[in-house]
Amino acid sequence: ARRDAGFSIFYMGINLGAFIAPLIVAPFADYFGFRAGFFLSGVAISLGTFQFRFTRKLLGDAGLHPHPSTEGELKRNWKLFWGGLVALAILGGLALGGVFTFDAAELARVLGAVTVGLALYFFGYVMLFGHLDKAQMKRVGVIAVFFVAAAIFFAGFEQASSTFNLFARDYTDRSFLGSWFESGEHPAGLYQSVNPIFIILLAPAFAWFWMFLAKRNLEPSAPAKFALGLIQLGLGFAVMAFAANLAVQADEVLPTWLLLTYLLHTTAELCLSPIGLSNVTKLAPKQYVSQMMGTWFMGVSLGNLIAGVLGGHVGGADITEMPSAFWTMTWIGVVSGVLLLAATPLLKKMMGGVR
Predict the structure, then answer these.
(1) Cα–Cα distance measured from residue 213 to residue 205, given in angstroms and rounded to the nearest whole number
(2) In whole angstroms, how far apart are CA 74 and each of 39, 67, 71, 293?
(3) Handedness of CA 57, 58, 63, 65 (dihedral sign)
(4) Mind listing the pLDDT tens digit for each residue in 265-310?
(5) Which of 16, 75, 118, 166 sits in a 20 to 30 Å window from 256, CA-based?
(6) For residues 345 and 342, what is the distance between their CA atoms, to the nearest angstrom?
(7) What are the helix and strand counts (H, E) for the chain?
(8) Cβ atoms within 10 A of the Cβ of 138, count?
(9) Residues 192 and 17: beta-carbon distance below 8 Å
(10) E strands in 18-80
(11) What is the rounded CA–CA span in Å between residue 70 and residue 128?
(12) DSSP state for residue 177 in the 8-state scheme
């Protein structure tokens, strides 16, 4: 319970930056253009890199003792690293030279297939050749289920930066504080700060709540928390379906619909994302902890990729098509959550006492 609570606090720290960024970048991009907005983000990333470089001594010896590798493994890893870097440089040069162009939809399909292939390869390799005992194999199986759940969750959750942002731009009344901006409306990008501020406000409450339940032996298991997250994700899309129906009739709706959706998706995120981070560290065999954490983020990555593809279809569609699309996402979230809830007793057994 303390680890789950600790990851909730850690998650709150990440979202402090996520809250501040849109408040600066969205108005900057609105006034100077998107190129300037991306430039400002790049400057911030560079500053963060320098900050890490000059303050890493504060981390002590954390991260300085990787799993021992043979000389041959180290040489192979460096060859793979430099080979990959050279390949990327060649591809970038050919693209800039106009030898070939990237098609976003095709690239998404390829990257999706590569991500799924890598995940299947890694989980299969660890299960078959990782020298695991039966208990460890079962726990890795649970991590694989969490991978799928993360991909489904973030495919919906990351509509916040695509479909929902387009809905905010085209169908939401943005007159509040409009006199502060040249266009007479506040930038749609400001809504990207809503989820992070909800995280900052609610993460301590969730951390306390898990501890409160744990002391009374009432805390839900990790699979149950995941299921609750997926169900709340679906309910958030139900809110957007009602909002889209209203927008069909009235052109614009109040921002409260988006705010309520973001609230539901935030409570869903707090039931799933920090819990997933925490439980991967608890379930993974010690020699594979870092790599298993990588598979968690592969699931997040796959969800983001699917979210981009869905956002392109739904966000670019006519408003009359949005309600049915949002209802479809509602059922995907709710049904996935219910199925995971039904599988919770089996998954708890596979976790072998890990809480």
Answers:
(1) 12
(2) 36, 11, 5, 21
(3) positive
(4) 999 999 998 888 888 988 999 888 888 999 999 999 999 998 888 8
(5) 16
(6) 7
(7) 11, 0
(8) 17
(9) no
(10) none
(11) 22
(12) T
